[in-house]
Amino acid sequence: MNWKIACIQMDISFGNPEVNYKNAKAMLSRAAEDSPDVVILPELWTTGYDLTRLDEIADENAQETLSFLKKCAKQFKFHIIGGSVASKTDEGVFNTLLVIDKNGEEIKQYDKLHLFKLMDEHHFLQPGNKDGFFSLDDQLCAGFICYDIRFPEWIRTHTSKGAKVIFVTAEWPKPRLAHWRSLLISRAIENQAYVVGVNRSGSDPKNEFAGHSMIIDPWGEVLAEAGDQEQILQGEIELKKVDEVRKLIPVFQDRRTEFYK
Ligand SMILES: NC(=O)CCC(=O)C(=O)O
């Protein structure tokens, strides 16, 4: 199976969901012109990192964003990895990745497991406690949020159970662009998996963001990479390549887990 991928590398208006819904709709509609199978949005794309105003602007149980994404998925007939949204629940606000299939059905919610202290997440958000697995077209995938990619053991937990495509949604600042690129490429090579990383462009009051969304194959080849401006990055992935690479170098069979304590 092949998937055409479209990464929505959008700028995000700080603390202004209305503007962001409008911009996302326009970009999703533009992406639809090339009939992609899977479309991905960046982290916290409705609010940006306006964490001090989350009481006001976070989405109650992600309901408004879910309804927006379901409508878009049905209208444009593609699966959406809906980036993440600040979701206000009875247990606090979570940074939640949403996955909707092309029929407009909700497939998955994943709460960011590792909160990023350098951007104050721990003061305003609750950490998740569930896995990132989901399936689209019967293909096992896993979704992660930004800082999560610094924890190879967390990604491995998913690929060692069969995940073939790793989706990463991010707001990754420019000063650490080299880390973003190296970490994504490393996660692809060591897990012999496709990695699709979608970052935002633009800036907020505290950070300038790197862009450079990337699509990387299971051999570590960069199939497509964006620049630092708003754009739709496209690429095609061939899922059987994951099995081919895993057969050629059987990393998963060669693990000596009894020594990894
Ligand atoms: N939004 C984030 O989690 C940013 C993570 C980051 O910048 C890093 O260096 O890690």
Radius of gyration of CA atoms, rounded to a whole number: 17 Å
Which molecules are bound besides the chains?
A: ligand LYUYDEPV
In the CATH scheme, the class would be Alpha Beta
Low-confidence stretches: none
Counting helices, strands and paired strands, the structural category is alpha/beta
Textual characterization of the structure:
By secondary structure, the chain is α/β, with parallel strands linked by helices. The protein has one domain: Nitrilase/N-carbamoyl-D-aminoacid amidohydrolase (4-Layer Sandwich). It contains eight helices and 13 strands. The protein has helices at residues 17-32, 54-57, 63-76, 121-124, 152-159, 177-191, 240-248, 251-254, and strands spanning 2-9, 38-40, 59-60, 79-89, 92-100, 106-111, 133-136, 139-145, 165-169, 194-198, 214-216, 222-225, 231-238. Strands 1, 2, 3, 4, 5, 6 and 13 form a seven-stranded mixed sheet that branches. The longest helix has 16 residues, at 17-32. The model has no long low-confidence stretch (mean pLDDT 98).
Topology:
Layout: E1 2-9, H1 17-32, E2 38-40, H2 54-57, E3 59-60, H3 63-76, E4 79-89, E5 92-100, E6 106-111, H4 121-124, E7 133-136, E8 139-145, H5 152-159, E9 165-169, H6 177-191, E10 194-198, E11 214-216, E12 222-225, E13 231-238, H7 240-248, H8 251-254
Parallel strand pairs: 1-2, 2-4, 3-4, 8-9, 9-10
Antiparallel strand pairs: 1-13, 4-5, 5-6, 7-8, 10-11, 11-12
The ligand NC(=O)CCC(=O)C(=O)O binds next to loops.
